[in-house]
């Protein structure tokens, strides 16, 4: 399928590379194409010639699946730039976390408890089918989960649209995920976004981001 | 050792029973002894004759370890009633979660993000050595983790005092826990308390509280 990825950071590049490797038609969107080309994207793009770079305004056109891999505070502006009409009816895999680094490390959350970034995006784009997923593990494990314990660990999907969750679950399974847990509607994104505080502490304690939780049951 | 448990609910009874089973001298504290005896405690106590019931004011006297198994909003009042002098120098295993049921189910958290109930208790009782632990799983699995996957899942300790964490870790190990992760100082309790939102959703989704997370690394 045609996959549009918003964001050119570690997460965006990891998803784009993996999706291209699996044979999808991948386009990555950025705020300013010239600035992105002049940065670390240039080197990465040379090794990934199948991935196209474009501005946010065009990225979602013709996409079957849109991936939000921007930072938490950059998500709504990026999606606004992509255009509500372009996003209408589409499945949006939202990977962003609303991290606030204003008080240093570890960051706090800027949205939580009785709301989530996933819900904010769903409210702002009611015609788009938002699925929160993959925001609970490091980019390398999002895309190549088999590197850790042969993939024997868990990821989650949250969203209001069952068909959209099916599309995302199939993509995750194609990445190698073996335990995709459907938590329920988009309000369950509160739970996965609020996993970040313990994730950040475990990262500090274990000295590596190559870990994940498994829901043992 | 002598273990004082504050709280006569499911968690308090589970901890008291398990500690007594392991040969500890166990006393349970409650706000009003007569009222507690008249409730479901009576039947439970008949099956656990080795466990003594007393008021909060006396429960911590002579204890080696104090366990806070009260509700989140009942924790500071119960500890106040137990007395700062009686708690001074002691290890306090804090299992409570600051759940707010004011908006129905699932509850939100009343303390979070840049604070936690564990930290509030540590600030209120600076002479007590607070260790947050066991607040991330159901009572049955706190005390008998081997029931699930032979105990192959994780629990966490957070606290400022290394010796106190060692005492709690040894207790948890004696219960059957095989993976006790020391997250760091008491501020890391934010992470484990903020696990509750996903725990509650998983409970709803799986239809049983007999699950836990394993940190795969």
- Topology of chain A as a string of helices (H) and strands (E): EHEHHEHEHHEEEHEHEHEHHE
Count of individual domains of chain A: 1
The assigned structural class of chain A equals alpha/beta
Instruction: Give the second-level CATH assignment, the architecture of chain A.
Output: 3-Layer(aba) Sandwich
The strands making up the biggest β-sheet of chain A line up spatially as: 3-2-1-4-5-8-9-10
Report low-confidence residues of chain A grouped into runs of 5 or more. Answer: none
The largest contact between protein chains, plus residue counts on each side, is: A-B, 39 and 39 residues
**First and last CA, distance of chain A:** 34 Å
**Count of DSSP helices of chain A?**
11
The portion of residues forming beta strands of chain A comes to 15-25%
Rg calculated over all Cα atoms of chain A: 16 Å
Give the CATH topology of chain A.
Answer: Rossmann fold
Q: Helical proportion of chain A?
A: 25-40%
Mean of pLDDT of chain A: 97
The CATH C-level class name of chain A: Alpha Beta
Number of separate strands of chain A: 11
CATH superfamily of chain A: NAD(P)-binding Rossmann-like Domain
Oligomer: homodimer
Largest sheet of chain A: 8 strands, mixed
Which outline of chain A best applies? Answer: globular
Keywords (chains A, B): Oxidoreductase
GO molecular function (chains A, B): oxidoreductase activity
Protein name (chains A, B): NAD(P)-binding domain-containing protein
Domain Pyrroline-5-carboxylate reductase catalytic N-terminal (chains A, B): 2-98
């Amino acid at each position: 399928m045609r996959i549009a990825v918003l964001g050119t950071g570690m997460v965006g590049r990891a998803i784009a590379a993996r999706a291209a490797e699996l044979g999808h038609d991948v386009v990555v969107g950025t705020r300013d194409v010239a600035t992105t080309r002049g940065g670390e994207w240039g080197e990465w793009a040379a090794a990934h010639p199948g991935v196209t770079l474009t501005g946010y305004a065009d990225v979602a056109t013709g996409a079957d699946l849109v991936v939000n891999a921007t930072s938490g505070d950059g998500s709504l502006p990026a999606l606004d730039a992509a255009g509500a009409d372009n996003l209408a009816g589409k499945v949006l895999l939202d990977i962003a976390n609303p991290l606030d680094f204003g008080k240093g490390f570890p960051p706090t959350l800027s949205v939580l408890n009785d709301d989530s970034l996933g819900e904010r995006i769903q409210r702002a784009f009611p015609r788009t089918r938002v699925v929160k997923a993959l925001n609970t593990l490091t980019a390398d494990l999002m895309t190549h989960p088999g590197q850790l314990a042969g993939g024997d660990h868990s990821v989650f999907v949250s969203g209001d649209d069952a068909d959209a969750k099916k599309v995302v679950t199939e993509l995750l399974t194609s990445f190698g995920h073996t335990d995709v847990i459907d938590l329920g509607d988009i309000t369950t994104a509160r739970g996965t976004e609020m996993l970040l505080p313990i994730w950040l502490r475990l990262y500090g304690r274990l000295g590596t981001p190559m870990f994940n939780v498994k829901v043992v049951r």
